[in-house]
Design brief:
Elements: H1 2-27, E1 35-37, E2 42-43, E3 46-47, E4 53-55, H2 61-65, E5 71-78, E6 81-94, E7 97-102, H3 104-107, E8 112-116, E9 122-131, E10 136-142, E11 151-152, E12 163-168, E13 178-194, E14 199-208, E15 220-223, E16 227-235, E17 245-249, H4 250-261, E18 269-270, E19 273-277, H5 281-286, E20 299-304, H6 309-313, E21 320-324, E22 327-328, H7 332-339, E23 347-354, E24 357-364, E25 366-367
């Protein structure tokens, strides 16, 4: 009987000991969460990402505290009435002014912008610059009541499956300061968006399953260290789809925010053509152009501007552009996406088809009007 009791005690102590070791491995032995992440300095608008990141978390309340007072509600007024509302975050504070980052579509067309801070202080904002293709804007406000500035992180360091969260104003003003939590679901997603009443632009975005509702646009996507890794921008909306929201990687935003903050337009290169996608059969027939049924990707040249880069390279109506800079051109939206990676004055090689033969040409990119 004594031996049986001793055996039970040994087993019990083994379980207790195992529990202590398990807690120590995850808590450091003191019951606190361990979060180790490299800092991400910004140099000339480019985030200097580091590769190592270790995160162990069971809750995000501490992380929320690092961003909550930097998150704001944005109300867009037209004709002295609220036309729409969205979200944003304070990314910089200098002297008398602070600067809010948000989406272009949140502030577009506004007669007046009102920024509401986390303590319900309301400040009129000034839109310094905005870009529809990046869906990015910079708004200036007084810094008098600003309590917190967001810490900029790095989306490249986040792994699939990591926890992320958002702070924003879904649906309307009464729900300002809402936190939604989810999973970092996908990197480098290429999503078609409507810029000029057609799906004519491709955005590279982060995919998350955290709830992103109307009004969350422009708010921060945050990692568990409280660092902004993206700007909430859009979601897929269909009855059969749930939990597919998208954010602009913070690295992409930081490349251009200084330009917008200075009130400058982002200049993009031009090759000097009008075009249609190869699958726009009816419109192509109207132009007197017929495409081989085997060609299912590419854009068809409809016209070439005089003295343009395309004209100098010898492009003609009916040519089918298949690649630019070595990247496939699926549609006009993809062509723009790849083209806008280059600067005015750069030389880029394109591959095109004419009379069922492939050709290459080099184009010196000019300034878009």
């Amino acid at each position: 009987m004594r031996e049986k009791i001793l055996t039970i005690l040994v087993i019990a102590l083994s379980f207790i000991g195992g529990a202590v070791v398990y807690r120590y491995a995850f808590d450091g032995g003191n019951g606190t969460n361990i979060t180790t992440i490299n800092k991400t300095p910004v140099s000339n608008g480019v985030i200097q990402c580091k590769n190592e990141m270790t995160i162990d978390e069971t809750g995000i309340s501490a992380a929320v505290g690092k961003i909550y007072d930097a998150a704001v509600t944005i109300q867009n007024y037209k004709n002295n009435r609220i036309a729409s509302s969205g979200s944003g975050f304070i990314y910089k504070k200098e002297g008398k002014y602070a600067y809010v980052m948000t989406n272009h579509h949140v502030v577009s067309g506004a007669d007046k912008i009102i920024i509401t801070l986390s303590d319900d202080t309301q400040i009129e904002g000034e839109v310094l610059g905005s870009d529809q293709y990046l869906d990015l804007a910079s708004v200036k406000i007084s810094s008098e009541n600003v309590k917190q500035v967001a810490t900029i992180g790095c989306s490249e360091n986040v792994n699939l499956g990591d926890t992320v969260f958002t702070v924003g104003t879904p649906i309307g003003y009464e729900y300002r300061g809402t936190i939604t939590r989810g999973t970092f679901s996908g990197k480098n997603r290429m999503v078609s968006v409507d810029v000029s009443n057609t799906e004519d632009w491709i955005m590279k975005v982060i995919q998350v399953d955290a709830a992103i509702n109307p009004g969350n646009s422009g708010g921060p996507l945050v990692n568990v260290n409280g660092e902004v890794i993206g700007i909430n921008s859009l979601k897929l909306v269909k009855d059969e789809i749930e939990g597919m929201g998208f954010a602009i990687p913070i690295e992409d935003a930081m490349k251009y925010i200084d330009v917008l903050e200075k009130g400058k337009k982002i200049e993009r290169p031009l090759i000097g053509i009008t075009m249609l996608n190869v699958d726009q059969t009816f419109q192509l027939i109207q132009q007197g152009i017929r495409i081989d049924a085997d060609i299912d990707e590419g854009v068809v040249v409809i016209s070439v501007s005089d003295d343009s880069a395309a004209a100098k390279a010898g492009l003609k109506k009916g040519d089918i552009i298949l690649q630019i800079g070595g990247a496939k051109v699926k549609t006009a939206a993809y062509l723009k996406y790849e083209l806008y990676k280059y600067n005015i004055g750069d030389t880029v090689e394109i591959t095109y088809m004419r009379d069922n033969k492939a050709y290459t040409a080099k184009l010196e990119l000019t300034k878009a009007s």
